[in-house]
Automatic annotation (TrEMBL):
<dbReference type="InterPro" id="IPR027417">
    <property type="entry name" value="P-loop_NTPase"/>
</dbReference>
<dbReference type="Pfam" id="PF00270">
    <property type="entry name" value="DEAD"/>
</dbReference>
<dbReference type="GO" id="GO:0005524">
    <property type="term" value="F:ATP binding"/>
</dbReference>
<feature type="domain" description="DEAD/DEAH-box helicase">
    <location>
        <begin position="4"/>
        <end position="71"/>
    </location>
</feature>
<dbReference type="InterPro" id="IPR011545">
    <property type="entry name" value="DEAD/DEAH_box_helicase_dom"/>
</dbReference>
<dbReference type="GO" id="GO:0003676">
    <property type="term" value="F:nucleic acid binding"/>
</dbReference>
<protein>
    <recommendedName>
        <fullName>DEAD/DEAH-box helicase domain-containing protein</fullName>
    </recommendedName>
</protein>
Length: 77
C-alpha cells in the first residue's frame, strides 16, 4: 500500500517523526518493520496497546533475524 511505503520512506530518509493511525489489520506493523530489514543500525520504538501484539512482533522479527524486545508493565520492578 502507498501509505505503508510513505511511512517506511520517512524512516529510511530520516525525514522526521512518524505518527501512523490505521485500522486493525491494515498492515501498520509491516510499515514499521520494513526499515529494520534495510538498516544496519538504529533503534526503533513502536508503541502498541496490547501486550500480545508486542510478543507477536518479537517472535516475527526473531524469525527475520532482527533483535527486538517487548517492554510491558510485567517487567517493572
Amino acid at each position: 500500500c502507498l501509505w505503508q511505503l510513505k511511512v517506511a520512506e520517512v524512516f529510511l530518509k530520516k525525514a522526521g517523526d512518524v505518527i501512523c493511525i490505521a485500522g486493525t489489520g491494515m498492515g501498520k506493523m509491516l510499515a514499521f518493520w520494513s526499515p529494520l530489514a534495510l538498516m544496519d543500525t538504529g533503534i526503533q520504538i513502536v508503541v502498541t496497546p496490547l501486550n500480545q501484539l508486542g510478543h507477536q512482533s518479537v517472535s516475527f522479527l526473531a524469525k527475520a533475524g532482527i533483535n527486538s524486545i517487548s517492554i510491558s508493565a510485567e517487567m517493572a520492578s
